[in-house]
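Margin note from the TA: students keep mixing up input and output lines. Inputs are the sequences; the output is the structure of the whole complex. Example:
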Amino acid sequence: MTIRPALAEIGRLATMPRVKMAHVPTAIEAMDNLRGALFPDGDGPRLLVKRDDNTGIAMGGNKVRQLEFYLGDAVDKGADTVLITSAVQSNFVRTCAAMAARLGLACHVQLEERVPKNDPLYRTNGNVLLDRIAGATLHAYPDGEDEAGADRQLEVLADALRAEGAKPYVIHLSADHPPLGAIGYVLAARELLEQIDEQGLAIDRLFLGSGSAATHTGMLWGLRAFGSDLRVTGVCVRRAADLQGPRVRANLGRLSALLDHDPGITEDDVEVTDVSLAPGYGRLNDGVREAIALAGSKEGLFVDPVYTGKVLAGMISALRAGAMATDETALFLHTGGQPALFAYGDSVLESADA
Ligand SMILES: Cc1ncc(COP(=O)(O)O)c(C=O)c1O
């Protein structure tokens, strides 16, 4: 068995404030039916999925691991209220609302107009419904691209709450803040490596979603810090590859500064593809519809229209193009997001672009 550095040997990693809520380790499962459907002649790689959609609280997903560190910091700083901003159908927001409720913290969420979708399902169902059930206070923000502006507006809300006697904690959106959420994926990388060792797995390439880049950054940083050279492909869900690559690189540097450790990541380590992004964030295309249908009908696995459907579509596209050999293994990181299925309704089944 490979000897890996202990958490305490990785800079400040072991000392970062955290609230433990995730149900981990998440399972790694084979997707043999999907492999058979994609490669009936047996000429494709073995497929595995790591079930981070099952992280336990708030319907699971990657944001649970990330919020353990934001909310840990909030509790450490004595906050009684958290503020967060993201898209209308954000999983980050829904997960924050639920985890804050569990911690007895008030939660204010700001929902941004990132997707040109006005139908009632999108506006009220899925994650929006869950935000409200979790008791969050909802605010609207008219822009979907202005990260700094959305953060500034959160600060305005925080000032107003402070004036009323609350102790607010702001979870910023823009990338120029310490990437606390990425720490959750540094630990997930360690978890994955333990599973690889214990289960005798040979994994050649990992496909994951790259949006805020917390998952991508944390996983890549963690793999290298714990001595693995596993190839990581970030599938763009939010912005084109020429913008996402620099975002990931900048985030990696911020994470090294935050944790006071340099895992020695090279330029080639940062790999992004936007093959399945069009026509843009939160908007469907036929590859995503196919991925949703294949995962559901072959594996009983639900992927979502905004994130994991795009990641799986990106992985399928790469594999169909012959990116991996039959004796290799691809791992799909399922990061959750299924509540959005109910906000998109049967548009996920149609063939016309939404
Ligand atoms: C379900 C799901 N998968 C993947 C992502 C992308 O992760 P990250 O924002 O850490 O890049 C998100 C982001 O919101 C998400 O909700």
